[in-house]
Amino acid sequence: MTTSTPEKQDGLKALNDAIDAIQNKITLLGGVFNVAMTPKVVTATDEAELARQMERAELENAEVAGDDDEEEVEGMDGFSGGEGTEDDKKPGNESQEEE
C-alpha cells in the first residue's frame, strides 16, 4: 500500500490503522495475514532506487519468459505431429495406395 500525505505521522498512522483492520477481518474469518514490510516514510532517493530495482526485476523476468519458450521448442525434437510415424514404415503397414 502507498499513500501521500503532507504529514508523515498522519500517513503512517492511517496505513497502520488500515493494516490492523485488514488483519483483524482476515483472522476473524480464519485466514492468515502477514505484513511483509511495515509502513515507512520514503524519500525521493528511496523511490528512485525502488524504481531502478523494479525495472531490473522486469528485465530479469522478461529474459526468463523467453527462456521458457526455447525449452518447449527443444522438447519437441522428433515430434512429427502424428502423421508419417515410424510404425507406418514397417513392413506389413503399407497403405493400399502404395500397392
Sequence-ordered SSE layout with sheet pairings:
Layout: H1 8-28, H2 44-74
Describe the structure.
- Helix content is 53%, strand content 0%.
- It is mainly alpha-helical and 99 residues long.
- This is Eukaryotic translation initiation factor 2 subunit 1.
- One of its GO terms (cellular component) is eukaryotic translation initiation factor 2 complex.
- GO terms for molecular function: ribosome binding; RNA binding; translation initiation factor activity.
- Keywords: Initiation factor, Protein biosynthesis.
- How many helices? The count is 2
Radius of gyration equals 29 Å
Number of strands: 0
User: What's the assembly state of these chains?
Assistant: single chain
Helix share bin: 40-55%
